[in-house]
UniProtKB/TrEMBL annotation:
Membrane topology, from the record: Multi-pass membrane protein
Keyword match Repeat: no
Entry similarity comment: Belongs to the ABC-4 integral membrane protein family.
Any single Pfam family the record assigns to this protein: FtsX
GO cellular component: plasma membrane
Protein's UniProt name: FtsX-like permease family protein
Record-annotated MacB-like periplasmic core domain positions: 26-254
Localization, UniProt: Cell membrane
Transmembrane domains' residue ranges: 26-47, 291-314, 335-361, 381-403
Every ABC3 transporter permease C-terminal domain range: 295-408
Keywords tagged on the record: Cell membrane, Membrane, Transmembrane, Transmembrane helix
Top-level taxon of the source organism: Bacteria
């Protein structure tokens, strides 16, 4: 064991000597490994950071959550012209389904509408994501509050002029003042602020609850009615745990078809979107991003491997005389092989560590500059280091074998 530790120490010394004596040649040869490790780990770190953000943003939603609406989350075999004829789900369908469905933990109603401006005294915040929802939404999405509360069933059903603000909106409107109980103007009407949500940070698609405002869904119904084509309505189902999802979707379809009077043989004029389908779609995209990163980076690693091999062949040629002397003094072939093999691995790992350092610096800068946390995890650091070591091992094996098989007399004579 001590022999190999000494061998490793000597190999490290030779690698450092190569860097000192042939800086430009060695750094250029290591560039391929550096770029390859940088490319792979940068992609993996970015994807991991995105995956972590998605998981955080969607953690409050059950993957079995179902969205019943006239649009589909994904591709559909139904022609577009046919889909455009589908009716919006209605509030009376929501109330009917709420009483008719079994095995349901929560059921809510939401309307997707355009952005608006909210005003308080002389302060105005524009492009606010208005979220008209029924009172069950707090239990479906698991909203967390900095202060105040969500509206209750009575306030929701009566269409009370109450509003829950996202964190950024509240700070922009009220600054350091107390927002609870204050009146803001929206849709030309006065709304009383009853709650402010905790800060979340940037959302998956840019928006988040920080820039959203929640109002009772019946406020929008009173303003625009139930047949406005500019609004998109959705019934949200949160089934009980352990429910057979196929049977549950079948019950939703059967109940709504009966309510709408669809005959046997007629196609559904609605879509039952399971949230897990959306998350699977996102996971597929993340997997493709990882694959593309590996393919592109593989070419850089291939070039880096050739660079390491070139360094080692040159190193063997420069140290032929020394190899001959070592062998004449009793050094075994295995000792010479490991010496050059360790040197190749050390050089490759140095290139990999430079690549990892570049990823860490870029992640640090982007995290500070953007409202998004880029994370270089320990798993990716170990992966990058391991890949670099493997590249060094594969690239150095032929030069190391060539060095170990040199005849000591010929090696000394050639090196003189």
């Amino acid at each position: 064991m001590l022999v190999y530790l000494r061998l490793l120490k000597e190999s490290f010394g030779f690698a450092m000597n190569a860097l000192r004596n042939n800086k430009l040649r060695t750094l250029l040869s290591l560039l391929g490994v550096t770029i390859g490790i940088f490319s792979i780990i940068a992609v993996l770190a970015a994807v991991d950071s995105l995956d972590r953000k998605i998981t955080k943003d969607l953690s409050s939603l059950d993957k079995n959550t179902i969205y019943l609406m006239k649009f589909s989350f994904g591709p559909s075999d139904i022609p577009q012209w046919k889909r455009e004829q589908f009716p919006n789900v209605k509030y009376d369908e929501y109330t009917y389904m709420k009483g008719a469905m079994t095995n349901t933990d929560q059921m809510g109603y939401q309307i997707f509408t355009k952005s608006e401006s909210i005003k308080y005294e002389s302060n105005t915040v524009s492009s606010i994501n208005i979220v008209p929802v029924s009172h069950e939404f707090i239990d479906i999405q698991g909203l967390e509050f900095e202060k105040g509360r969500f509206y209750n069933e009575s306030e929701a059903n009566s269409g009370s002029m109450v509003i829950v603000l996202g964190n950024e909106i509240a700070k922009s409107l009220f600054e350091d003042a107390e927002p609870i109980g204050k009146n803001v103007r929206l849709y030309g009407k006065r709304f009383t602020v009853i709650g402010v949500l905790k800060k979340e940070g940037a959302g998956l698609f840019g928006d988040s609850n920080d820039t959203s405002a929640f109002i009772p869904v019946n406020v929008i119904r009173q303003l625009y009615g139930d047949n406005n084509d500019n609004l998109t309505n959705v019934i949200i189902f949160k089934p009980e745990k352990g429910v057979d999802m196929d049977a549950y979707k079948g019950e939703i379809s059967q109940k709504l078809r009966n309510f709408r009077g669809l005959k046997a043989g007629e196609m559904d004029n609605f879509f039952i979107n399971v949230f897990s389908g959306f998350t699977d779609f996102i996971d597929g995209i993340i997997g493709q991003m990882n694959l593309v990163g590996w393919v592109i980076s593989g070419f850089s690693l291939l070039v880096g491997g050739f660079g390491i091999a070139n360094i080692m062949f040159v190193s063997v040629k420069e140290r032929t005389n020394l190899i001959g002397i070592q062998k004449s003094l009793g050094a075994k072939n295995r000792f010479i092989l490991f010496q050059f093999l360790f040197e190749a691995i050390i050089l490759s790992v140095i290139g990999g560590l430079i690549g990892l350092l570049m990823v860490w610096l870029i992640a640090f800068v982007l995290t500070k500059a953007l409202d998004f946390e880029f994370v270089l995890g320990m798993g990716n650091i170990l992966l990058g280091t391991g890949l670099a070591a493997i590249i060094g091992l594969v690239s150095g094996i032929l030069p190391a074998i060539a060095a170990s098989k040199l005849d000591p007399v010929e090696a000394i004579r050639t090196g003189m």
